[in-house]
Amino acid sequence: MSMVSEALREDKSFAGGRRTVAGVVNSIETLEGGGFLVRRPFPKPSFSEFDPFLLLDEMGPVELAPGEAKGAPEHPHRGFETVSYLLAGDMEHKDSRGHAGRMRAGDVQWMTAGSGVIHAEMPARDFARDGGRMHAFQLWVNLPKRDKMTKPKAVIETRTPIIYLHYRIEPGGEVTQQVPGAYNAFAYVVDGEGLFGAEDERAGDGQMVLFTQDGDEVNLKNPADAKATLEVLLIAGVPLNEPVVRYGPFVMNTQAEIRQAIEDYRQGRMGGNKDKDREPSRRTSHATRPTT
User: Fold this and answer.
1) Which residues fall within 8 angstroms of residue 52, CB to CB, at 6 or more apart?
2) How would you write the pLDDT of the chain (292 residues) with one tens digit per residue?
């Protein structure tokens, strides 16, 4: 709850009342990293970002056989923060600035890419060998222009204030969460089907519910006749209202800054060796087939 408390202290502009639903977004399925499948409500051709958020990916839940686990080998980032949340599995992180760590079920890893870093997120050796259940999320949070070239860090330090909550609501249960009126807010349904907002809009597994900025409360409800627990991520943050120019793992404010990011990557200024021909993956800029 610490991130919620921080957010509520920093912004007291409440519009009052329960928010209505602006829309429901379906996820697409696409391959990421070393070839693992993710569900992604955004970005995709019809919906590129939800200020200040740039991407949300769900990996799994999936049961992996021995030797089947895949990760994201070395790749660069600049201009934003990544928030990784592991529900099941065992992952290791390391980057070109000397940061390293291990994530197990229930852990969160926060990385401020800032001016640029090359990092890898791979299954832990024993998990890769033995297999098991994998379920994880990654959220990209944009940095304001003044912070895009800040020093990379791998600690929880919120430069763009956000709320990030995971609810499990039993049948007949209801949650009303206070959210500052100036924040953009959305819910992502991890499992089950529920009712959202002042008008009880229905949404289910893999869908993203966008809330209108017309209140200071978000309502989540699992109907009494539901057959299963409703699992929901509730995410909200301060919109930056700045230009967004993105090229795969680089998110800046101008095309010139993107060209500079590519050049810095090739010249080894984010770590690694110089290579005038190396190209950052643009996989996160493209969506593939929709889920059914």
Assistant:
1) 141, 142, 160, 162, 184, 237, 238, 239, 240
2) 333 433 444 444 445 799 999 999 999 999 998 899 999 999 999 899 999 999 999 999 999 999 999 999 999 999 999 999 999 999 999 989 888 889 999 999 999 999 999 999 999 999 999 999 999 999 999 999 999 999 998 777 778 999 999 999 999 999 999 999 999 999 999 999 999 999 999 999 999 999 999 999 999 999 999 999 999 999 999 999 999 999 999 999 999 999 999 999 999 999 876 665 566 765 554 333 323 2
Q: Scan for tokens 């197990």, then name that residue.
A: 104
The three-state DSSP-derived secondary structure of 170-230 is CCCCEEEEECCCCCEEEEEEEECEEEECCCCEEEECCEEEEECCCCCEEEEECCCCCCCCE
Domains of the chain: 1-27+161-238 (2.60.120.10), 53-159+242-269 (2.60.120.10)
Phi, psi of 114 (to 5 degrees): 50, -125
Give the global pTM.
0.89
**Distance between CA atoms of residues 262 and 254, nearest Å:** 13
Per-residue tokens: 187: 């819910």
All residues at 6 or more sequence positions from 284 whose CB lies less than 8 Å from its CB, including other chains? 32, 43, 55, 248, 249
- DSSP E strands in 96-151: the ranges are 100-104, 108-112, 117-123, 132-142
Count Cα neighbours of 17 within 13 Å in the Cβ-side half-sphere.
Answer: 10
Structure tokens at 203: 């949404």
